[in-house]
Design a protein that fits this description.
Rossmann fold; 2 domains; globular; alpha/beta
Length: 324
Amino acid sequence: MSDLRVVSGDLRPPAFGKRDLLSIADLTRVDVERLLATAGSFARSQERDTKKLPTLRGRLVLNVFYESSTRTSSSFELAAKRLSADTMTLKAAGSSVDKGESLKDTALTLAAYEPDVVILRHPQVGAAAFFARLTEACVVNAGDGKHQHPTQALLDLYTMREAFGRLHGLQVAIVGDAAHSRVARSLVQALRLVGAEAILVGPPTLLPPGLAPASHEIDAIADADVVYVLLMQRERMLDGANFVPSLREYTARWGITPERIREGQRVMHPGPMNRGVEIDARVADSDAALVVDQVRAGLIVRMAVLYDLLTTGPVAVETTVEVA
C-alpha cells in the first residue's frame, strides 16, 4: 500500500495489546470512522489490475465455522488472501467436532499453530468471547448464536454511507425476525453509534423488547431511508414454536413488495434471501436493492478489520472520511 498517501494520524489503530472484535460494543465512533476509512482505501486498491497487497504477508488467519456460511466465510477468506496472509478454513462438518470435541479443545488445538487471527462462527452465544480467552490470537466474532455479528453491521454502515453520502440522521427500518437475529442486534448498536436511527417492524412475537422503537404495522417503513429486511431464523427457534400463524400470512402482512417501497428508499438484506417470503423478487432485483453492494462491501470491510487488528501503523488513505 506504499503507493497511497498517508494523511491522517487519527486513523492509526491502537498500538498496544491483543485486540479482538467480538461485538459492536467493543468499538467507539472513532473506531468506526477509522475502519470505514480503511475500507474505502482498500476499495480503491481493488480497482487495480493487481488486487493483491503484501500487507499481511507471513500472517496466519484461521476461519473456524460451526455453522453454514457463504458470504461471511468466503469474504473473510478472500480478504485474508488479498492481503497476502496464509489462510486455513475449518468447518465443523468433517472435523473432530463430529466426534464430540469440545470448543475448548478445538481452541487449544488451533492455538498450537500460532495463528494471528481466528475468525469464529458458532451457534452458542458467547462462544467467540470464550475462544478469545484461550488463544493469543486476535478473535473476530463472525456470528455467535443470536447475539452479535459485528462485521456485518460495519459492512452495512459502509454500504449505507456509499448510497447516501452520510450516516448521521439516516432512518433505518429493520423488518422481520429481530428476536432471533444477531444482525439486527449489531446493526441497531452500530446505527446508534454513528447517529442514525432504527425502528423494528414486524409481528410482536419477533420483536425483542428494549432493543429499539418498534411497530407492528408495515406502514411504519414509509419514512425510512433504508428498509433492512431480515430472514426468518427458523434454525434458532425452539422446536414446535409458532411465532407467526403461517409464512403466507407473514408475507401478506410484512413482506417487502414493490407497492410498499417508495421512490428514493433503498432496500438491504444480509442474506440468504427467502424470495417470496420476506422479500418479493421484484424488490430484490430492483435498482432500489443494495444487496450486491453489501456483498462487495463485505470484502473490503473485512480486509479493513484484519488490517486494523494486525497492524499498528497508519492506514494508507487519500482522504479522511467522516461518518456524519
